[in-house]
Design a protein that fits this description.
The protein is an alpha/beta fold. It has 17 helices and 27 strands. The longest helix is centred in the C-terminal third of the chain and has 21 residues. The two termini are 54 Å apart.
């Protein structure tokens, strides 16, 4: 479906079923722009990264006028390195996301082909059918912006991720003045972050975190401190630098991702004198272990229990230099992202078994603030923009429905819950579901992107729960079974008596199917799979993956 003249279409391709893989198409007059192109993290069945399905925009070369990135978090920018060759259009970003994106692309053979347009707030990008203005918004990463998208058919404000913080320490404040001006100009539809809609009050300030962390760390003067936080939260990183200097501690950073973020900010105007001083105070891990515990502070990622993160490796004792023990305190300056509870708990259990003391927001609530809007922030945004209609984005189903209800209670009369693939028409502030295209997440499997529903991934799931049975046999030239089938089972407990019984049944099944279908190998395979599956369910209460290998001589 292509947008006609004076028609405004909204087509989300991700970010509505779970946190991550944010991507939304906006179209008018037979042209489209893409807002964000992010990944989601999976960590199951050998799949770590999911991307949106861009099959639809990839079929329209020349009609995709640009990718507009709201900020540099992976769930908004991370898929460009995998999907850009299918789109081959300019990428519009502010200064800091541009530095992060260039890091991601530098190892790609086609990196020099990507036209990266660095934009500034209040200087609209004018295309044939779109005018897009970046509006500064506070968030937990530098350079975050909302997008004010104007077309002849209507005006949209896409919030990206945001919060209100009047004292963010490092980075921009939310531009309240410009948002009020935009509200007076008129917003036909607001697409808004739903992550913290279940949280009352307001998100809070990084300034308060600095005070709280300083107080907590001062209570452990004789212990070595490790602070774990998101690598992308450079304001939090600057706070740790600040506290270390004030308390006479040297800083060692464990893990590559924080160094990458330091490298990115070093190329931008956000590099403050305090941050420079912090960078200059970083010491190697080898020097850190030679200092008394009271004279060193470690900083690392892994607050979400990521299996390969620096903190989880420390918890497992896999760091070759640093070993955590009874003289260590680990401070989690982060919240638990829904879905990560078990991984985080497993990691914290490992730490405590090694004698490490843990400090979290459960006991010291002010040591972290979210980068997303709570109810108090949302009410202010509604009041500033005064949108005619509303679509909740960036959240799972619970969050989206809660946000719709809250927006309606706050006075927004027209709202709509949307699923990925649904094409929404916007006219005079009215939202209408027009049609739906088939989309699915794409899984990064080694170097390849395949649908998450692909048979290869389904087979892994089957094997992980039911094991596998592999049956190989040879058919003679007179269409008989020339020898007993070779049977290999994996992941299924079978004692000797059951094993003999299973071999006998499979021999009978194979012989019967060869007799029934003497000339069709495909029919023999299909019927053997079906019959053997019934045997496995009846005899072992298992539904394994079944593989049949046939050779004819």
């Amino acid at each position: 479906m292509q947008p006609k003249k004076n028609e405004l279409l909204i087509l989300p391709l991700g970010g509505l079923e779970q946190i991550g893989a944010n991507c939304t198409l906006i179209g008018t007059n037979d042209e489209w722009i893409i807002v964000d192109l992010g990944i989601a993290f999976h960590d199951s069945l050998g799949i770590e990264v999911l991307t949106p399905d861009i099959s639809f925009p990839a079929t329209m070369p020349g009609k995709i006028k640009g990718i507009f990135i709201t900020h540099a978090h992976e769930d908004h920018i991370g898929a460009i390195q995998y999907l850009w060759p299918k789109l081959r259009c300019p990428v519009y970003v502010t200064e800091f996301p541009a530095a992060v994106l260039k890091q991601k692309l530098k190892e790609r053979q086609w990196c020099d082909d990507v036209k990266i347009e660095i934009v500034t707030c209040k200087n609209p990008i004018r295309l044939d059918n779109f005018e897009i203005e970046y509006v500064a918004l506070a968030h937990s990463i530098l350079g975050a912006c909302g997008l004010y998208i104007k077309t002849a058919a209507g005006k949209i404000f896409h919030s990206g991720d945001w919060k209100i913080d009047d004292a963010p320490l490092l980075g921009d404040k939310t531009d309240e003045k410009r948002l009020i001006e935009i509200g007076k100009e008129g917003v036909d539809c607001l697409l808004c972050d739903s992550t913290n809609v279940l949280v009352d009050d307001e998100a809070g300030s990084e300034t308060n975190v600095r005070k709280a962390l300083s107080l907590v760390i001062s209570q452990y003067k004789d212990r070595r401190i490790t602070v774990t936080c998101f690598a992308s939260n450079l304001a939090r990183m600057e706070t740790v630098f600040h506290i270390a200097r004030k308390s006479g501690r040297k800083i060692a950073i464990v893990g590559r991702s924080m160094f990458k973020m330091i490298s990115a900010v070093s190329e931008t105007s956000y590099l403050s004198e305090d941050f420079k001083a912090g960078i200059s105070s970083i010491i190697p891990e080898e020097e850190a272990v030679s200092l008394p515990p009271s004279k060193v502070m470690l900083m690392c990622t892994g607050s979400q229990g990521e299996a390969r993160s620096a903190l989880f490796r420390l918890a497992r004792g896999e760091n070759r230099v640093i070993k955590l023990g009874k003289h260590d305190v680990v401070v989690f300056s982060s919240k638990v992202i829904p879905g990560n509870e078990i991984c985080i708990r497993d990691m914290q259990n490992l730490l405590t078994r090694n004698g490490v003391e843990i400090v979290t927001t459960a006991t010291e609530g002010d040591i972290h603030v979210s980068g997303h809007p709570s109810k108090g922030d949302l009410v202010k945004m509604y009041d500033w923009l005064k949108p005619k209609s509303f679509i909740p984005i960036h959240g799972d189903s619970v969050m989206l429905h809660a946000h719709q209800k809250f927006a309606e209670q706050s006075g927004i009369k027209e709202s709509l819950i949307v699923e990925s693939g649904e094409i929404i028409g916007l006219s005079n502030g009215q939202l209408t579901k027009l049609s739906k295209i088939d989309v699915t997440f794409m899984a990064l499997d080694g170097p390849s992107l395949i649908p998450i529903t692909h048979d290869a991934i389904n087979e892994r799931l089957t094997m992980s729960t039911g094991g596998s049975v592999s049956v190989s046999f040879i058919i003679s030239n007179d269409n008989r079974l020339s020898n007993a089938p070779d049977i290999i089972t994996r992941g299924i407990f079978i004692d000797k008596g059951e094993s003999k019984r299973l071999e006998s049944k499979i021999y009978q099944i194979v012989s019967n199917e060869i007799t029934k279908h003497p000339t069709s190998i495909s029919e023999i395979k299909r019927e053997c799979v079906s019959a053997i599956r019934k045997v496995m369910v009846k005899q072992f209460d298992k539904k394994p993956a079944i593989f049949i290998h046939v050779h004819r001589i």
